[in-house]
């Protein structure tokens, strides 16, 4: 026996016990080898006496118990061999009861009882009943728990089950069930008493020990819950017996023990070990016990696992789905969750939300066609959250996001989620940050599944769901959002706009009108992301409209190009205040080009006017001015809708802007680019060779001036690159047949470049000029009209 010493630690006690155990096990084995029953019983009893210690924690005691278990298996084999050699099993059963101490005596009695049952010299039920009653002699929780665990282990294959060799007229499966339930009841009592034995000051220590037991899966498997596993393996335990006998008695014991750890673990055991079919048919009984459990029991996990198992059962066996409706599984689960939350007044929000999240997943898997069930779950969740305001618990909000994401993941169609009337009401309980997270989830679902939202009503509902991304009016003061995250969020909104589409022009116009109303109230910093795709959608709509001649209502139609252009003007006007004047400038030019294709001269002129105003008032950076002027010239060149007066006004402005650029090279390039505004090959009304030549000469003058300024400032002749660029323009217009651009003017430009001293000192300019000359030679060799033209030029 391990000596009780207050100053010795647990490791020393275990080491001492293990040493004594090993020594007696050695002598026991030697006696077995010598077929000496008397000595085998003597040394086995001394060996088992080491289990009488009270100084070891459950963890360490389990180590010692497993050593004993292994040795007892050897002893059981020896007992069986003794009976074959003529030893009476009845005498053996009585002989082991002569052991001096009760704990070794009962271990030996269980071992001998196992052999007794195998010999079939007495009904199994009588022996099992005797053993389970005799084990009451050990009331110490830890020692008794392991003793009954040993009893459960050695008897599991000797129960009188249907089809078992131990089944007979006197032995039925009812006897087996009675034995297991009795052993289970006694083990559960011992398990609970582990918390209450000893002085109150040791209660915390005992709780810790019991938690260790719960964490030792091997131990628990062979302890209390093992009895339930044995019951689940009995062939004779059919649905009727489970419903009428097993489940009521197990639940009665669980509820009456009033211990949170035992209740949680045993409820989980029931769910895990018995068939799903049994759970489905006894839902009302199983769920009825849940509100009676201790308030501190983690009922959230228990119910969640039950619903997960039932969901998996339905997924693997689709033929059982009608039974779920027949037994009203959804209603029972929903009511049970409500009663549990009501019974546990202090239940955390996290637990309540998790329960409804599990119920929603169950509903979506088992009843995917019953949207009313899903909406009912959301409504029940709202009922529990009402009066609590925004949820700020991180884990609870994460679980709420999971709940809201479930319909999207199941249906892969946000349109179905829009049909759930309680969906946006649940969303309102999220704080601003998590609303953005949920909005991102919704948008990703739409983009991933390429879901088209085709009505203004649905778009309105969708925008309410993602208002966390499109509206910052209710942002908390001082809340800082990472710029990269913000840009990514707004880019996702921009991509979403292209999924809001209807083939009906009138409905499409309603959609973009709804978008406008939301975006313009969403704060200026979002406009540069949301307005451009909205403009693109509106321009696409214009291209789909019938020609006015084909439309009997013309401009008075409910949706016309004129109305859409007015709409575009309204939304682009908001951008300069964003501030995004560069973006507004580009959009005005795009709209002007669209108006050009619709032959809407006044509208196109107005868009150009707005672009010019922005250029003059908002674009001050020299590089930005160069880029903007290139866009003006390029767009204006493609316009055919303007009359002479309007076109002259716009081209005059463009050439005026060109001459006012800060840098001379930029002026030169802008001016020669303006030459294209006066000669369009396919439009005879825009073919003014004089003004083309005037632009080229003015560009040449500016290039000369730029070279002189470089020479004066740096003491060296500037690059001739500008001259070569102008030469290329001369060649372009000469090839187009403009009378004012003559052979002499081209030859004069070539000679001017050749006379420049800096040509040879600038490799890039020299290469550019050589390339231009090769082009001219190539054109000569082509022959025909173009070849004849270039043949006239003498290089």
UniProtKB/TrEMBL annotation:
Keywords: Membrane, Protein transport, Transport. Its main location: membrane. InterPro entries: ARM-type_fold, Vps35, Vps35_C. It is found in: Membrane. It comes from the Eukaryota. Pfam families: Vps35. It is a peripheral membrane protein. Plays a role in vesicular protein sorting. Belongs to the VPS35 family. This is Vacuolar protein sorting-associated protein 35. It comes from Brassica rapa subsp. trilocularis.
């Amino acid at each position: 026996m391990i000596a009780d010493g207050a100053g010795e630690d647990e490791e020393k006690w275990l080491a001492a016990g293990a040493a004594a155990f090993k020594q007696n096990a050695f002598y026991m084995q030697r006696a077995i080898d010598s077929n000496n029953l008397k000595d085998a019983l003597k040394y086995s009893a001394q060996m088992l006496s080491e289990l009488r210690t009270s100084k070891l924690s459950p963890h360490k005691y389990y180590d010692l118990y497993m050593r004993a278990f292994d040795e007892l298996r050897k002893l059981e084999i020896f007992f069986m061999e003794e009976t074959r050699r003529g030893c009476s099993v009845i005498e053996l059963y009585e002989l082991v009861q002569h052991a001096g101490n009760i704990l070794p005596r009962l271990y030996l009695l269980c071992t001998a009882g196992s052999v007794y049952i195998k010999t079939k010299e007495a009904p199994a039920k009588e022996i099992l009943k005797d053993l389970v009653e005799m084990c009451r002699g050990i009331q110490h929780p830890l020692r008794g728990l392991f003793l009954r665990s040993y009893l459960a282990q050695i008897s599991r294959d000797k129960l009188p089950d249907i089809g078992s060799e131990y089944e007979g007229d006197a032995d039925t499966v009812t006897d087996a069930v009675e034995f297991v339930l009795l052993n289970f009841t006694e083990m559960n009592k011992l398990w609970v008493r582990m918390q209450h034995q000893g002085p109150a000051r040791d209660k915390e220590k005992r709780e810790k020990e019991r938690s260790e037991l719960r964490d030792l899966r091997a131990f628990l498997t062979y302890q209390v819950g093992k009895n339930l596993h044995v019951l689940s393996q009995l062939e004779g335990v059919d649905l009727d017996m489970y419903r009428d006998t097993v489940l009521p008695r197990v639940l009665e014991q669980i509820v009456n023990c009033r211990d949170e750890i035992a209740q949680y673990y045993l409820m989980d055991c029931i769910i895990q070990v018995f068939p799903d079919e049994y759970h489905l048919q006894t839902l009302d009984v199983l769920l009825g016990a849940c509100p009676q459990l201790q308030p501190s029991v983690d009922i959230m996990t228990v119910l969640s696992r039950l619903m997960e198992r039932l969901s998996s059962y339905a997924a693997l066996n689709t033929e059982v789905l009608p039974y779920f409706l027949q037994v009203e599984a959804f209603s029972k689960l929903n009511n049970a969750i409500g009663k549990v939350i009501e019974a546990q007044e202090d239940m955390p929000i996290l637990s309540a939300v998790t329960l409804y999240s599990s119920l929603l997943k169950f509903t979506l898997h088992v009843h995917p066609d019953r949207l009313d069930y899903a909406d009912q779950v959301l409504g029940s969740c709202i009922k529990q959250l009402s009066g609590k305001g925004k949820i700020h618990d991180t884990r609870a909000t994460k679980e709420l996001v999971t709940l809201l994401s479930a319909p999207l993941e199941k249906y892969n169609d946000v349109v179905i989620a829009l049909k759930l009337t309680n969906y946006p009401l649940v969303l309102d309980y999220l704080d601003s940050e998590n609303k953005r997270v949920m909005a991102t989830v919704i948008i990703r679902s739409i983009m991933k599944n390429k879901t088209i939202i085709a009505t203004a009503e649905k778009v309105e509902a969708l925008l309410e769901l993602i208002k966390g991304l499109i509206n910052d009016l209710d942002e908390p003061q001082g809340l800082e959002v990472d710029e990269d995250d913000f840009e990514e969020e707004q880019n996702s909104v921009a991509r979403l706009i292209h999924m809001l589409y209807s083939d009906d022009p009138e409905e499409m116009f309603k959609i973009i009108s709804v978008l406008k109303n939301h975006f313009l109230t969403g704060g200026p910093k979002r406009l540069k992301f949301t307005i451009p795709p909205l403009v693109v959608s509106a321009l696409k709509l214009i291209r789909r409209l019938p020609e006015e001649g084909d439309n009997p209502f013309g401009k008075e139609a409910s949706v016309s190009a004129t109305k859409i252009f007015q709409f575009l003007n309204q939304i682009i006007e908001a951008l300069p205040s964003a501030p995004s004047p560069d973006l507004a400038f580009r959009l005005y030019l795009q709209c002007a080009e669209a108006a050009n294709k619709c032959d809407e001269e006044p509208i196109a002129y107005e868009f150009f006017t707005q672009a010019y105003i922005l250029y003059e008032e908002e674009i001050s950076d020299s590089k930005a001015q160069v880029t903007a002027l290139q866009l003006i010239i390029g767009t204006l060149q493609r316009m055919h809708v303007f009359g002479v007066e309007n076109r002259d006004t716009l081209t005059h402005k463009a050439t005026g802007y060109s001459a006012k650029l800060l840098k001379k090279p930029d002026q030169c390039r802008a001016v020669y680019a303006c030459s294209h505004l006066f000669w369009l090959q396919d439009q005879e009304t825009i073919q003014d060779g004089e003004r083309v030549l005037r632009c080229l000469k003015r560009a040449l003058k500016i290039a000369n001036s730029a070279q002189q300024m470089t020479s004066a400032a740096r003491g060296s002749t500037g690059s001739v690159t500008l001259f070569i660029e102008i030469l290329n323009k001369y060649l372009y217009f000469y090839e187009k047949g403009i009378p004012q651009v003559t052979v002499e003017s081209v030859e004069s430009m070539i000679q001017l470049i050749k006379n420049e001293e800096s040509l040879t000192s600038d490799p890039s300019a020299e290469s550019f000029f050589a390339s231009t000359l090769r082009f001219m030679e190539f054109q000569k060799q082509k022959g025909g009209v173009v070849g004849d033209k270039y043949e006239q030029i003498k290089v």
